[in-house]
Amino acid sequence: MAKRKKPDEAGIPEWVVTYGDMMSLLLCFFILLSAFSEIKKPREYQKVIDSIKESLGLDGGLGMINTSRNPQNSMINHLVEHAKMAGEVPSRSDVNEQAIAGRDQTVEAIREGGRWVLGGPVSFQAASVEISESSKKELRDLAEQIRGGDERLEIKGHAWGLEDKGEGDDYRALSFKRASAVAEFLETEGGIRGERLSIVAAGNSEPKKTDQLGGSQNRRVEVIVTEVTLSQTHPDPDWQGN
Asked: How many C-beta neighbours within 10 Å does residue 163 have?
């Protein structure tokens, strides 16, 4: 004769209690994760730090941490100091206002690139801005090579020595006059577009030699070609009048 099935005992099964405890712990764990992920303000950090210090005992509490370092140099102490300095001043995370847009929101790039000296320097007599006949011939030959290009040209003038002050100009003014004379010659005699030319007065700041014999080499004008093109710097490079 078959045995009768024993009736189930009344009450909640044991596995349900264990499952419920596990779910409760997981819920608390994710709540803590969510709470810690939102701590971005010094004042909120201060509350967490106080709780950690009370539990771990950096300043007393349940016991001292066994460490060879000074607890005052710990990261917790640095966070405490940061929170104290912040005080009630709103931090970046407290500010919800939009930044004020400026009138011009674009960024202008400074054009660099390579630079090369073309030909030899144009030499000048002491205190003079006159271009010699030999230098004029060299400038005409140079203009033949660069006339059809689009690169910007830098005409840099130099001056040097007490002899260069014979006309009463300072070094910078004299070097500017020399560079202007060369630029004008390249434009009128060499057919170079004036928009391509930039005049630079170096004065006596870039001598090749600093002794008495360096005067003839330092009283010069250099023609420098750059990698910057006219179309990059001029709003109307083809001179259409637009």
From this structure: 13
Among the four given CATH numbers 3.30.470.30, 3.90.25.10, 3.30.1330.60, 3.40.190.10, the one describing domain 115-233: 3.30.1330.60
Q: Cβ contacts of residue 185 below 8 Å, gap of 6+?
A: 131, 136, 139
Which residue's entry shows tokens 């995370």? Answer: 93
pLDDT tens across the length of the chain (242 residues): 556 666 566 667 788 888 888 999 999 988 888 776 655 566 666 777 777 777 665 554 444 455 555 555 556 566 666 666 666 555 555 556 665 666 666 656 666 678 888 888 899 998 889 999 999 999 999 999 888 888 899 999 999 888 887 666 789 999 999 999 999 999 999 999 998 999 999 998 988 877 666 677 889 999 999 888 887 777 776 655 54
Residue ranges covered by each domain of the chain: 17-88, 115-233
